[in-house]
Design a protein that fits this description.
- Keywords: Acyltransferase, Transferase.
- One of its GO terms (molecular function) is acyltransferase activity.
- It holds the Pfam family Transferase.
- The chain is α+β, with helices and mostly antiparallel strands and 463 residues long.
- The protein has two domains: 5-191, 2-Layer Sandwich (Chloramphenicol Acetyltransferase), CATH 3.30.559.10; 204-398 and 420-454, Chloramphenicol acetyltransferase-like domain (Chloramphenicol Acetyltransferase, 2-Layer Sandwich).
- It is 30% helix and 22% strand.
- It contains 13 helices and 17 strands.
- The strands form five sheets. It has a five-stranded mixed sheet with strand order 5-7-8-2-15. The chain has a four-stranded antiparallel sheet with strand order 1-4-3-6, with no helix packed on it. It has a four-stranded mixed sheet with strand order 10-17-16-14.
- Helix 8 (259-278) crosses helix 11 (335-352) and helix 8 (259-278) packs across helix 13 (448-454).
- The radius of gyration is 22 Å and the shape is globular.
- It starts with a strand and ends in a 9-residue tail after the last helix.
């Protein structure tokens, strides 16, 4: 039987994402034998790949051709098999010890993950769309499942949909009882159809588009002359504390802010305070807060359909800004401080509002990418290395703790991401909604000295 080859070109919104991998570690307490777990996970992953065959593929770079810009595409064939889950052996730590320490990111060595978080696509061989690995804890009381998808193929929201689909295959004994992803159109067709429903009368020039969207830039970031040691660590805020701030804000805001908005304002404020200890001149500058926004429902609610979810990238960036001095004073006690926190919440909510990031916004971003001669010539519009701006991605509403992997594993008890060394990035981890004692976990990536100062802030739960 002849081999059939398939190609799916990635969309403008895929191309704008940084190369590398989106990854999560799911930790399951279990007494089931490791080989049994590995076999069950592999069999169910095989079924997932039958429904989403491009997960078996690789992401390739294609050079510019006559009339076409360089791009990326996923390639796979009818003879490809689903990715093999790599057995990574055993951690040197016990599950009980790591849980006591809240499973620090650094406790999971880099070699437990199949791929590095940041990786360049090699010419000719490409990079796998999906990889996974499994390891044991030293006491045999739990396993860790590391899953990664290429960021140019899948965003965090699509990543969560794939994990949920995998969990349903693990839990259900009959393949026929599991709702199938429709996937009736490839990602380009679905995106084009959604955009065409709201077609614009006039296409702005590239200069006009960049003028409308300061979250993007044509200029590469200025590299620092000195490289400081950076690290990442999980810090926690109790929901009781966040709810207390929300109650106080009722007197200053006409519309109650979301938990996510308040949390992001508090994180922004605490991190700017820590940075000011090292660099007092920051108080005379403006700080910007870019945040990732899921555009699916902003463009077409069908893209968020549970039976046919859009798995490709649909991430846009909001951009809030405020004097750094005011940001640092948010929520520090007293009326003026609460009023500044209300201002920060208002600015963040406005930057992320459906009126600001709508179908027209998404079309603009697609047109920027289409009009560029090289998709790699677009850069973030905020400062990456100056310790002035802060980028936040929230996974709080990705219900990974609700994914039930069936007998032997059940629901994950911890969700973690790969350890990274960076300055000015925050990822709010999925919420574990367990009632009155709930804590919001945030991965803070900062210069090591700034992080040590940050940990002294009164915002955090005493550990």
């Amino acid at each position: 039987m002849a081999e059939t080859r398939f190609v799916e070109r990635l969309t403008p919104l895929d191309l704008i994402m940084p190369g590398g991998y989106v990854g999560a570690l799911l930790v399951f307490p279990t007494t089931q034998l490791f080989p049994t777990i590995l076999t069950k996970l592999q069999n169910s992953l095989d079924l997932v790949c039958e429904r989403v065959p491009w997960l078996m593929g690789r992401v390739f770079f294609t050079s510019a051709a006559k009339g076409q810009s360089s791009t990326l595409e996923i390639r796979w064939t009818t003879t490809d098999t689903s990715p093999r889950i790599t057995d990574k052996g055993s951690l040197p730590h016990t599950y009980e010890d790591l849980v006591r320490d809240q499973i620090p990111l650094e406790s999971i060595p880099a070699d437990m993950w199949t791929s590095r978080s940041a990786i360049q696509i090699e010419s000719g061989s490409g990079a796998p769309v999906f990889v996974a690995s499994l390891f044991r804890f030293a006491d045999g009381k739990a396993v860790g499942l590391c899953i990664q998808t290429h960021h140019n193929a899948v965003d965090g929201f699509g990543f969560a949909e794939i994990l949920g689909f995998w969990a349903r295959h693990m839990k259900e004994s009959s393949k026929s009882t599991i709702p199938s992803f429709g996937l009736s159109l490839d990602r380009n067709s679905r995106l084009a159809k959604a955009l065409d429903q709201r077609s614009a009368t006039r296409r702005p020039s590239l200069d006009e588009l960049f003028g409308r969207h300061p979250e993007y830039s044509r200029h590469p970031p200025v590299l620092p002359t000195e490289v400081s040691a950076c690290t990442s660590e999980i810090l926690t805020i109790t929901m009781e504390k966040i709810n207390g701030f929300k109650e106080n804000l009722k007197f200053y805001l006409a519309t109650a802010p979301s938990t996510n908005t308040v949390a992001c304002a508090l994180l922004w404020s605490a991190i700017i305070r820590a940075r000011m200890r090292r660099n007092p001149t920051l108080e005379n500058k403006t700080s910007r807060l870019p945040m990732a926004v899921n555009g699916r429902k902003r463009l077409d609610t069908n893209l968020a359909d549970a039976q046919n979810p859009y798995l490709g990238n649909m991430v846009l960036f909001s951009l809030a800004e405020m004097p750094a001095r005011d940001v640092s004073d948010c929520g520090q006690g007293g009326g003026p401080s609460t009023e500044l926190l209300a201002d920060a919440c208002r600015i963040i909510a406005q930057a992320q509002s459906p009126d600001r990031i709508d179908a027209g916004h998404i079309r603009d971003v697609c047109n920027i990418m289409k009009d560029l001669e090289d998709y790699r010539s677009i850069f973030p519009g905020w400062e990456l290395f100056g310790s002035r701006d802060l980028f936040i991605t929230s996974w709080a509403d990705l219900n990974m703790y609700e994914f039930d992997f069936g007998d032997g594993l059940g629901k994950p008890q911890s969700v973690r991401i790969p350890y990274a060394q960076a300055d000015g990035n925050v990822i709010i981890l999925p919420r574990k909604r367990n009632g009155a004692g709930e804590r919001l976990e945030a991965v803070i990536m900062l210069k090591r000295d700034d992080l040590e100062v940050l940990k002294e802030d009164s915002l955090w739960e005493a550990l």
